[in-house]
Amino acid sequence: MFAIKTVSLFFATALMEIVGCYLVYLWLTQGKTAWLLIPAGLSLAAFAWCLTLHPTAAGRVYAAYGGMYIFVAIFWLWAVDGIRPTFWDMVGASVALIGMAIIMFAPRAS
């Protein structure tokens, strides 16, 4: 159950970070309305809050979260940008997820 909760929380956290940054990107590079900065700020605040919900050392959470972020960014590339990930994108995302799992779920001395 811990693994499912951790992975789900990392996925939601990454989605919030990407949405927040993407909205700023739309405003800055695509000429979209500045009103996008309000949901962007809320999304980025939720992202930061979600990182505090893990019951382990912050440094370990931040390091492991990076693996999930890579996976979600590749998914975003396909789902939102409409660019199909390459084989190597998928290999890289898989390696990142394996790294996340090693960092978060390796046995530790109490």
Automatic annotation (TrEMBL):
Q: Which domain of life is it from?
A: Bacteria
**Any one Pfam family match given in the protein's UniProt record, by short name:** UPF0060
Keywords for the protein's UniProt record, in alphabetical order:
Cell membrane, Membrane, Transmembrane, Transmembrane helix
User: Does Membrane count among this protein's keywords?
Assistant: yes
Q: Which InterPro entries match?
A: EmrE-like, UPF0060
Checking HAMAP family in the record gives:
UPF0060
Return the protein name: Small multidrug resistance family-3 protein
The organism is Nitrosomonas aestuarii
The taxonomy runs:
Bacteria, Pseudomonadati, Pseudomonadota, Betaproteobacteria, Nitrosomonadales
